[in-house]
Amino acid sequence: MEKIKTLLAILCLTLGASCSSFLDTEPEDFLSPEFFYQNESQIHTALVGVYNKLSDTRDGAPLYASAYFTFMGTEGDDGFYRKGPESALPGQFMYNPSAPHVANLWRALYEGINLANVLLEKLDDADMDDRKREIVRGETLFLRAYYYFLLVSNYGDVPLKLTSSTTPYNTDMERTPSHIVYQQITEDMERAYDLVESATEVGFGGRVNKSAVAGILARVYLYWAGEPLKDHSKYKNARDWAYKVIQSGEHALNPSFEDVFVKLAADAYDIKESIWEVEFYGNRTDRPRQAGMLGNYIGIVSNNDSIGRSNGNIWASGRLYNLYKPGDLRRDWTIAPYRFNPTESTNREYFAATQIWTRYAGKYRREKEVFFPKSVGYTPINFPLLRYSDVLLMFAEADNEVNGGPTPEAIKYFNMVRRRGFGFPFSEADLQVPNPVSDLTNDEKSDKLSFLEAIQDERSRELAFECLRKYDLIRWGIYISSMKALSNLYLTSTTPSTPSTQARNVATALGMISDRHKLLPIPTHEMMLNRKLVQNPGW
């Protein structure tokens, strides 16, 4: 089965993946839908179109090619967009319902949903092997559900549409309550789990597999269990789905935290750790033209072509820097310990120990790319959507909630992640011998709340800059207080140094957060098109 990135060139010639709206009825291609979807080749090309929304670089690159990990404010208190403050920027709470990033995200997700709906409606009529048909059905159901998951996470109640759009008329649809959207998401994903191949069978991270489905289901159920819905019964579902991934025996932590991200930059798959990732490839000088901005918009500032040019738009926060304990190797990979000075050179200037406020997010480093020549703006670095360490921490969190406190199993999986962070062995045998440097302290595992707080900090250390922190803070009910605390930290701190004026200006904007920012506003354009939409509170 060909990898997704090798099919993207075909997609542009057949499906017309550049539709301007999910309500468009006139195809912008050579084959209209009634003459497409007829055989296995066409079905797989259509499936690539559904995947492609994850990596789309058009119209503001609203998802994992650019905007979602920079402009959208998805890092919470782990880091922030360093420029500005800038108007219309969700990451600095200076935007309104007309902001382009707000509208682009909504549009792209519904475009993906509509492509999935069309494929599901046409699939049974295609001339192809039945087993392959069911695999495609599973992937498509999962992707549709994932796009709805991103919608409900960002906008709250959203119209739930499970059929394709065939007319530009009768577009008025009421917002569906979030719990019903979550119910549809989980039904689709659970059905997909039975249909898709295992991670070992797929063999690479760019395609949906059983472990990806199970792991994302654990995430979905954790969000459902937390704020704003607070259906605590879903913690058991989250634990059980995370455990399916663990029990599969197909996954393990890479002994080197750094190597996880070196592989993403080098297009080298590690299906044991990196369970699902968004594929990028090349330098946009030839087909397939599917490079993204990871390493550029979020990376270490550079104007050197051999290193790879980077705007370095995201600073890691001083809060995140201080969160790492001495000896934790993750800190100096997640937060770059150096800069290139001058930026045109390859000379690394290492920061002084007191310089903690304006270091660049360092997980995605263009110097590790292996595709040459390097593009000025675009990169082939893949984006991690689900890693095994996340699954272990999700299990520990859900298990803690289900049992009213940490169990030996939850502590074991937590300590595996933390030991890897310090570079210590973490096998079952190794874990039998306590390690006071890395392992949970007695205070951290003394009760349910203490263990939850340890998990909250550990998720920050392990998963920073992977588009998870903001949503974790929201579901824990601490988003507003955490962002205000970050703002206050930058505005008042004088030790170990005083944050720069630029950092304090951004911090002032971050302090403007209010309850309305727990959700994005419904885009103005959509409110004009759909008269049944009601705006989110405060907007």
TrEMBL record:
It is found in: Cell outer membrane. Keywords: Cell outer membrane, Membrane, Signal. Residues 344-539 form the RagB/SusD domain. InterPro entries: SusD-like_N, SusD_RagB_dom, TPR-like_helical_dom_sf. Residues 22-222 form the SusD-like N-terminal domain. Residues 1-23 form the signal peptide. The keyword Signal applies. Gene3D superfamilies: 1.25.40.390. Pfam families: SusD-like_3 (PF14322), SusD_RagB (PF07980). Belongs to the SusD family. This is RagB/SusD family nutrient uptake outer membrane protein.
